[in-house]
Amino acid sequence: MSTAREMRESIYLPERAQIVEKKRMTDDETWYHLRFESGRALGHDPGQFVEVSLLGVGEAPISVTSPPSMTDGFELCIRHVGNVTDRLRDLEEGDWLGIRGPFGRGFDIEPARGKDVLFVAGGLGLVPLRSLIKTVLENREDFRRVILFYGTRSPDTLLYEEELAEWEADPDVEFHLTVDMTDDTWKHNVGVVTSLFPRVSLDPEETVAYVCGPDIMFRFVVQQTSRLGISDENTFLSLERRMKCGVGKCGHCQEGSVYVCREGPCFSYAEVKAF
Amino acid sequence: MNATKVVSKRAFDVMIRALGEASELVAPVSRGYDRFSFAEVEDASALQCEGYIPTINPPKKYFLPAEEVLVEFSAPDGATLGSGSEFRADAVVDSPTRVLLGVRTCDIRAIAMSDRAYADTYEDDNYFAKRERATIVGLSCLEPCDDHAFCAAMGAENAEEGYDLLLTDWGDSWMVSVGTERGDEMLAACDGVGEPTAEDREQWASLQSDRRAAFAPVAEKISVEKERLPDLVDEGEGSSLWTEYGDLCLGCGRCNMVCPTCFCFDVEDEVSLDRTSGERKRRWDGCTLLEFALVAGDENFRSERKDRLRHKLYHKTRSTFDRYEEIFCTGCARCFRTCLVDIYHPDMYNALEERLGGDSS
């Protein structure tokens, strides 16, 4: 009598998307090129994320790794660490999944225009940063120096190896690579990502830093950027929390007064300090 | 005060019964052991519920059910879910028409708070489909409901808005404050609605002064003004209080479940045994539960009970104050009544203030 059940649009309804291409990146990570069934572009900013659904299994928040300039679908790089992401490992080209988003606030790129840009990526942190790195490189003339630090556990956990080689060869990119552990064949630095800081001389007043990696890495990297004199306002981070609904309701990703999914996941360090 | 009328209880009941033909009527019903819960009723007689303390669960269950389907999905013939096959997914939005009778002012305030959270940035269709079809008939408290409520400390012993009608017991009649057009229409459907007489007005003024006197001690349950609470919780971040209360707290989440302003949820997929169809459901979740801030890879951002308890109070004070200029606590004390170890928010605030030196400037 009084109950009506409506079928309609909702912020919780995933949209169908198809895997166009899939590539193994490492033992634990796979890269996917996805396209919405509707053909629409994702329309995201670098640093934003989507909720990936395998209906019947669940949903997981995943950073978009492609730049906004890519309009034929979008790319995700997924680490297989949970129920949903484990299952995604078995999906093949042509398979379907659900997408909600893009959600949240991406990296603020404006402060970096006309300045030196420092990217610091640790492990899977390269995934969201890649969207921004590519955007910056596509608009190279808008920025001065582009410095990229990337660190992972070991050589076999490097992501985007082909692109790393391109960036290394690019005279317009100051590229520095490090791993925590390796063998004798490794030609780059050995040590945590902060050990790369002494290798470059930075102009702190004119540098904007974008940092992404595990929480423990943030702590040490911002010590370095602060010590060098890069302002908290010009240091940007992307935080990982349990973003479940993606729309600032379910509460799981709250950090202090903010919903990381809605006000973030990208913040300036000044904002993070105020949490 | 909003436009006030006098209507006989009998006439009001006739109107409510008529509404009940096209809507679900719900009101507090006694469950024994001095416990009450909102449940479906036939008429407005439940408004006479004696000694009604805040219900076990607040009326939020009608807008944010303890469990709710968000999406229905299925796989085509021969395929199973989760395998990457094509699938069909539809949003599900239940939207019953309801009249909530006898909602206390503390709960009226809480509903207004949830409304703001669920409208913030992204409007939650599932919540508002139900909220917009709900009529709220409030009931004024003439005196504190028990020794634990601290509503007056949170300014929730009155409500100026957030209801369609607000009733005050007036013998054989109700004194009715009208909050919305919808409330106006309801009154227009009642027989014999009258203006308050000069005598009524006099009695009303004396009733209000009695109420103020009755609630004055309740306002004293917290030693600081409620506007001070956000700073208090902020300044007390490193206090030993959290460890002490964290050791006491069982992390059971009961306080979250019964809180009228707790609106966090978890989402889970349920599938048929043959994995061809299923539902995505949301369920109440609580920030005091261990798994609440757990992410894939087993990192937990608040693995200690003291951190979760502090987060809860922080969210109800600082976070919501910064965002909505409101403390998301109505002082209904449901959290205390359900707590197995008697954690009482006013005690925590008072102890925190004392330890910080009692300087509330």
Q: Can you walk through the features of this model?
A:
The complex is a heterodimer of chains A (275) and B (361). With 275 residues, chain A is of the alpha/beta class. Chain A is 19% helix and 32% strand. Chain A has a seven-stranded mixed sheet, sandwiched between helices. A six-stranded antiparallel sheet of chain A has the order 5-4-7-2-3-6. In chain A, a hairpin with a 2-residue loop joins strand 14 (254-255) and strand 15 (258-259). With 361 residues, chain B is of the alpha/beta class. Chain B contains eleven helices and eleven strands. In chain B, helix 6 runs antiparallel to helix 9 and helix 7 (240-248) crosses helix 9. In chain B, the strands form two sheets. Chain B has a seven-stranded mixed sheet with strand order 1-9-8-7-6-2-3. In chain B, strands 5-4-11-10 form a four-stranded antiparallel sheet. Chain B has helices at residues 9-19, 105-119, 125-131, 181-188, 198-219, 229-235, 240-248, 254-258, 305-324, 334-338, 345-355; strands at 4-8, 24-32, 35-40, 67-74, 88-94, 98-104, 134-139, 165-170, 173-178, 265-271, 277-284. Chains A and B meet through strand 1, strand 5, strand 7 and strand 14 of A and strand 4, strand 5, helix 3, strand 10 and strand 11 of B. Strand 1 (5-7) of chain A pairs antiparallel with strand 5 of chain B, so a sheet runs across the interface.
Descriptive terms for the model:
heterodimer; A: 275 residues; alpha/beta; Elongation Factor Tu (Ef-tu), domain 3; Rossmann fold; 2 domains; seven-stranded mixed β-sheet; globular; B: alpha/beta; four-stranded antiparallel β-sheet; 11 helices; 11 strands
Class inferred from helices and paired strands of chain B: alpha/beta
* Proportion of residues in β-strands of chain B: 15-25%
Mean pLDDT of chain A: 93
Helix fraction of chain A?
Answer: 10-25%
| Strand-pairing-aware structural class of chain A | alpha/beta
Number of strands of chain B: 11
Supply the CATH superfamily name of the largest domain in chain A: Nucleotide-binding domain of ferredoxin-NADP reductase (FNR) module
CATH architecture assignment name of the largest domain in chain A: 3-Layer(aba) Sandwich
SSE string of chain A: EEEEEEHEEHEHEEEHEEEHEH
Number of strands of chain A: 16
Number of domains of chain B: 1
